[in-house]
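Example 373, ligand NAP.
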Amino acid sequence: MTALRHGHDSTEAYGSDLFVDSGTKFIEHGSDRNGALLWAQPGYRVGRRNVTFGARRSADWFHVGMKSIILTRYGGPENLEVADVSEPKVGPGEVRVQVKAAGVNPVDWKLAAGGLDDFFVVKFPCIPGWDVAGVVESVGPDAPEFSVGDEVFGYVRKDWVEYGAYAELVTASVGMLARKPQALTFEQAAGIPLVGLTALRTIRLARLRPHETVLIHAAAGGVGSAGTQIAVAEGARVIGTASSPNHSYLADLGATPVEYGDGLVDRVRAEVPDGVDVILDYVGGGAAAQSVELLADRSRLISITDAEAIDLGGRVVWGRPDGRALTELAELADSGRFTMNVARTYRLDEAADAWRDIQSGHTRGKIVLTVDR
Ligand SMILES: NC(=O)c1ccc[n+]([C@@H]2O[C@H](COP(=O)([O-])OP(=O)(O)OC[C@H]3O[C@@H](n4cnc5c(N)ncnc54)[C@H](OP(=O)(O)O)[C@@H]3O)[C@@H](O)[C@H]2O)c1
């Protein structure tokens, strides 16, 4: 029937019969000589029941897929399934990364719940996850920026949600990736891209200068940990909000910690009577409105979660995939001024527990999935 290329250690094309587990349906994507790629259809056997598909050559079986976490419809952690799916194709200007670790972000479960339906097309079944650290496994046409074996990390958000980073392999255009900081582990590096790029963008757009003071809401979370360190590295004074168990953590990052909640403005004024130069709201829930009176120039209020910031005179910012900016963060990490606290790691097949954990809203730094292949 169809020639299949795969077998993990071979690129040879085999003229052989396509095998699927009986009763299992697949779509073949293309019939090119490099082999048909397969994607299971809704209604087929996937997940913990473990789909098997491969090419028969003599008496051998060749696994053509990769282990991944999939969603077949909108839902919560309970809808995440472990499944073997086809490996993503590597297009022009892209590389395919063997995932060592995948960062978990609140947006992952928000997308799964349908909360970002206005902004992103989700093609089910889909693999969640936008943050990756790993090793370049193959290089597509015209992608000279990277070679097989390079250690990289990246925010690999695509135009639609389908092939994400909760998998053994993920593809990315070269512009989304940077070389992994040597000073950091794969787990630390995987926790950085989305939050680090978002934090960097907010700090740049707020025009934060050395010796200025910035109030960071949710300074102990993923974005907050990144933003606090970047601002401190740039010579700013950081007042960071967190609950008291995180105050020594924030002090270690170089911030002055303050408790959030009623009386916040008074507590901040006790530290900086003239108020702050910039407010970065990384939590929402009214934090921007509650604190905006601390700001002389309201255009320097930036929120990543709360549209009310616009009514208050500020703006809302979204992090963007950006390999160059990620290289800046990697250099900062290798200079010893930037790292990422990994609060907890989970195995890929424990992704549902990782989502329940991050849904608590009290992660210190990042939660990361580890991936063995
Ligand atoms: N626009 C974008 O591009 C963008 C990018 C990244 C993230 N986001 C969004 O931004 C938010 C933060 O993301 P994240 O990854 O940093 O989340 P996260 O890591 O889950 O944030 C957890 C942190 O929030 C703190 N926190 C909880 N309630 C708080 C409050 N009322 N005041 C101050 N701190 C509070 C917790 O500190 P305590 O444990 O001390 O309470 C914890 O350290 C999420 O809603 C996410 O979806 C948007």
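Summary: The pocket of NAP is lined by residues 105-107, 110, 194-195, 198, 217-218, 220-224, 241-243, 246, 260, 282-283, 285, 287, 304-305, 318-319, 358, 361-364 (CB under 6 Å).
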